[in-house]
Specification:
Radius of gyration: 17 Å
Largest sheet: 2 strands, parallel
Family: Belongs to the helicase family. RecQ subfamily.
InterPro entries: P-loop_NTPase
Number of helices: 5
Protein name: Helicase C-terminal domain-containing protein
Number of domains: 2
Strand order of the largest sheet: 1-2
GO cellular component, one term: nucleus
GO molecular function, one term: DNA binding
Order of helices and strands: EHEHHHH
Shape: extended
């Protein structure tokens, strides 16, 4: 059984899905960060990617990304006139996107080690 969770779900349905997940009636949830809201949210990706392995059992975390998304994000930062920020701020944002991209491509260094560093 699987479910989709997003910010547009009503509270009743969200609670039902959450309980099915807690009770192992649901094996897969595809969700935005809306699923993590209110559930021991500490520091986004690092915290979320480690959630499955907290019980000490073998766990998998799948990271989906697309190169075109990185290009779109960079263009938005560089050319969107509604982003009223300095060139330095834009450069910091571009550097952050580049770090995420490098993280996605790196299949040699342990993901946990990359997050910690």
């Amino acid at each position: 059984m699987h479910f989709l969770i997003h910010a547009g779900l009503n509270d009743s349905l969200r609670q039902t899905i959450h309980m099915k997940w807690i009770n192992d009636e649901c094996q897969v949830i595809c969700a935005t960060v809306a699923f993590g809201m209110g559930i021991d949210k500490n520091n986004d990706y690092y915290q979320e990617s480690g959630r499955a392995g907290r019980d000490g059992e073998i766990a998998n975390c799948h990271l989906f990304y697309c190169y075109e998304d990185f290009i779109k994000m960079k263009r938005l930062i560089l050319y969107d006139d509604e982003l009223k920020c300095s060139i330095q701020t834009k450069q910091v944002r571009i550097n952050n996107i580049n770090r995420v991209y490098d993280y996605c491509l790196n299949n040699i260094i342990c993901r946990r080690t990359q997050c910690i560093n």
